[in-house]
Amino acid sequence: MKHFPCSPLVRQALLSALHTSRRRFLAGIVLAGLTGATSGQGAVWTVDDTGGADFIDIQEAVDAASDGDLILVREGCYSALTISGKSLTIQADAPPGTVEILNPFFITGEAISVSSITVGQQVVLRGLTTFIVAFTENEIASGVSDCDGPVLFEDCQLVNVSGIALEIDNAASVTLQRCTVDAGLDQYDAFINEYLQRTALTVTDAKVFLHETTVQGSLGPDAQQQIFGPVSPPGAGGIGILAASNVQLSAFGSTITGGAGGSGTVDFCFDGRDGGDAIRCDATCTVRLRDTLAQAGTGGAGGPGCGLADGVDGIDLNGPPASFETLTGTAHEFEITSPVRESENVTITYTGAPGDLAFLAVSDSLRPGFYLPARQSVLHMGPFLQILSLGPLPASGTRQLNILVPDLGTGVEALTFVCQMALLDSGGALSLTGPSSVIYLDQGL
């Protein structure tokens, strides 16, 4: 999408608006000043699996869409989707967790696949849930590969109850904002009578940014009698994040845990299995953690009364010590509700220390995440369209603004933006939150 430079009239309006109320400033000036950005806005497509929309499946909309288009998905269950070489935004237009992308039993392939996104393109996925139950050894719920442009997952639940939840390979920038990445339980393989531990997130040759995100390695089941087979031994805990090679991983306000190892149980005599590492670097990697918990899984207990060994706890940060850097300070939360229609309230919620000065930066595009060492933060936005002063945070350290969205104007179906909050503390230190995408819609959509 094109960068829309503010005209002198808009700049003058911004100056005068500093003397008006904050709500009027945000609702009136922001939208008025940004309406010209719609020159880069593509078509809007709707999807509903019960009918009454442009398409009944997401893939149909993806195939029909062009660069810069927006796809709104209503509540329902949908088949796997593949985005290749297209700049798209796919937004759930439904309550959280109700837009599900399912991959049924025994069906191979990723539920969400994003690939070949070039420089100047971007993909934003917000509010999608994947849930896979498959019995193949290397099943992957979602994958991002061969992308030079940025990819943003926001408010997504990427769950694979028997395999890898998300695999990232050869990607310039993949960001997860308020997401869950969960590998579920170890997968039972009847041919070798053993559970196969699963990593939640695997990364190779990529930069990955986590904000307010939870990553959970697979849990190792206890020893148990299989319905159509022998007694299975307990399973080992899965790894939270496996950084294979040439990886830069930055996590802010997130939780990354390895799975607990399974136990021998009272009825069967087996050694306990090992817990999974929280983060493991197998080759060259740089891991930065700010206000992030990295906790390995505990080892399972050996079968009671059998004199067998307990499993070993996993390692929180497994790799060369120089690979891991703990950043100082607190990561701040930030969210803008989306989508929001004309005459509805858009809600902006953010946190920081009491008295911190808050600034909302607005752009019409993502950029590959760029780590700022002096700020211990990541810049995710393209050229700024506006930077808005929101004043100091209250004593609670949390502020929520509800702002009425005015009419978008004749012929404007949607406006899409990417925002980040910048917080300036009393010592003059500036830090950035993670990004949040927001879509303003015509009331008729």
What does this structure look like?
It is a single chain. The protein has 445 residues and is mainly beta. The protein folds into 2 domains: 43-327, Pectate Lyase C-like (3 Solenoid); 334-441, S-adenosyl-L-methionine-dependent methyltransferases, CATH 2.20.130.20. The protein is built from 3 helices and 38 strands. The strands form 7 sheets. It has a 15-stranded parallel beta sheet that branches. Strand 1, helix 3 and strand 2 form a beta-alpha-beta unit. Helix 1 packs antiparallel against helix 2 (22-34). The chain is globular, with a radius of gyration of 23 Å. The model is unreliable at 1-29 and 31-40 (pLDDT under 50).
Comma- or semicolon-separated keywords:
445 residues, mainly beta, Pectate Lyase C-like, S-adenosyl-L-methionine-dependent methyltransferases, 2 domains, 15-stranded parallel sheet, 7% helix, 44% strand, globular
User: How many β-strand stretches?
Assistant: 38
Q: Indicate the overall shape.
A: globular
Q: Uncertain segments of ≥5 residues (pLDDT<50)? A: 1-29, 31-40
Strand content: 35-45%
Radius of gyration from the CA trace?
23 Å
Cα-to-Cα separation, first versus last residue:
21 Å
In DSSP terms, counting alpha (H) and pi (I) runs of 4 or more, how many helices?
3
Let me know the largest β-sheet: 15 strands, parallel
Mean pLDDT, all residues: 86
